[in-house]
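== Sequence, structure tokens ==
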Amino acid sequence: MKLILFDVDGTLMDSQHMICAAMDMAWRGQGLPCPPPEAVRAIIGLSLANAMETLAAGRDHPIDALVTGYKDAFLTMRQAGIWKAPLYPGARAAIDRLRLRDDCVLGVATGKSRRGVAAMVETHGLEGVFATVQTADTAPSKPDPGMVLHAMRETGIAAENSVVIGDTVFDMEMAKNAGASAIGVAWGYHPVADLHEAGARSVIDDFAALDAALLALWPSSEKASAHA
């Protein structure tokens, strides 16, 4: 069996506008200027407290209050019905293809909260898709390997048969730190060259290329894929 762990923000879901809006609300709520959008995009993928600390850059900012403000902002947007974070083109089709294979287990490893993942699952009709869901609620922030290690233990699948699909160097380094493989995506929030440098086995330009990237990673899976 193969374990395929997807990052969420910047990989499956284009959520940068929602993240930047919530971040702006959180910082303004503390009377502070929000960091520019490019700085916010650069920390997407980290757990929330780590992200705020990185954005604060050592300044004496109220990290706990910023975290709470961000969570409250997201909840407000969801309750107002303005939570709009679409899946990237081809994401659903790729997931559906992999679900049909009898040699694959799908999971999520994300810096989002479990509540955030639940919102994505409900919004996009992904109930029952992911056998393991690893979030910032129960694991250290990427690039710590905890999320991947927990997913491997939960599914009983070894590191050599596990891969992380992600858009940031945090994803690539997390996979490497866990002894797993990593495949980068070019449409997310970190430059392609940085993904390669961080350990990506390959970087795909669209979801249509994912099957070939997985086959290159695990050539022996071709027979199982063709059977499915």
